Amino acid sequence: MGYESEYKRILNKLFAARVRDLVSLIGKNKPGKPLEITRDKLDEYIEKLKELVESAIGKELLNEELDTAKDHHKWLIKGRGVEARIEEFNNWYKENFGNDSNCVYMYWAEGDKCIYVGRGTSGGQRPASHLVDVRFQNAKWLEIYTFGGPTLLHKIECMATHLYDPSLNKVASSRYERDKSCPLCIRYKIIEDELNAIFR
Ligand SMILES: [Zn+2]
Q1: Residue 145: its pLDDT value, please?
Q2: Ligand 1 centre and the CA of 185: distance in Å?
């Protein structure tokens, strides 16, 4: 089943449960009760709906933003020892991005697993700062997109975080502030608010 039809199927199922008693009023039988949806069950449905939205449109929305990048390159992490790595990186950054200062970056490990998504406004400084972190030791690639201004960085970072599910961002997720203009966050909030209001 496609994402959209699965999404609609779940919503229809939820609403049918909610109005079951109302529907029964038109018949001559004693009115029934609305079908009980437990808190846990509702949360499960909300998570599922959010996942379906992300699967259906997340990649396309993110790619639309990434397509507006000024420049985009991937660096195979190399250099023996932290200092050598940072020097290699700084040279590579200068060569490929010049004086570009606004960026969104991703650290990738073996098997195309994204381990971290971040953003910076001071050139290679912020992405390079993780090269000293032992938790980034298994990183193989550092991918960088630079942008003309800082306005969209947080939004793009937020979208990429939803989509790539980076393991090291998760550790800090309680501190991670979502971006208010992120189209996925906006949709998630509507799903949560609406369903919580209907089934409160
Ligand atoms: Zn978001």
Answers
A1: 98
A2: 4
Phi, psi for residue 38 in degrees, rounded to 5? -70, 160
Encoded tokens for 108: 């990738």
Find the 129 Cα to ligand 1 centroid distance in Å: 24
Distance 157 CA to ligand 1 centre (A): 8
> What spacing in Å lies between the alpha carbon of 49 and ligand 1's midpoint?
15
Mean pLDDT in consecutive groups of 10 residues from the start of the chain, 200 residues:
94 91 86 80 96 97 98 96 95 97 97 96 96 94 97 96 90 68 96 93
17 C-alpha vs ligand 1 centroid, how far in Å? Answer: 30
Interface pTM, i.e. ipTM: 0.99
CATH class of 69-151: alpha beta
CA of 155 to the centre of ligand 1 (A): 7
| Helices first, then strands: H and E counts in the chain | 9, 4
| CB contact at 8 A, 183 and 65 | no
User: 189 C-alpha vs ligand 1 centroid, how far in Å?
Assistant: 10
| The pairing of beta strand 139-147 with beta strand 102-109 | antiparallel
Which sequence spans correspond to the domains of the chain? 3-64+184-198, 69-151
Show the CA angle centred on residue 159, arms to residues 90 and 200, nearest 5°.
Answer: 150
CA of 187 to the centre of ligand 1 (A): 9
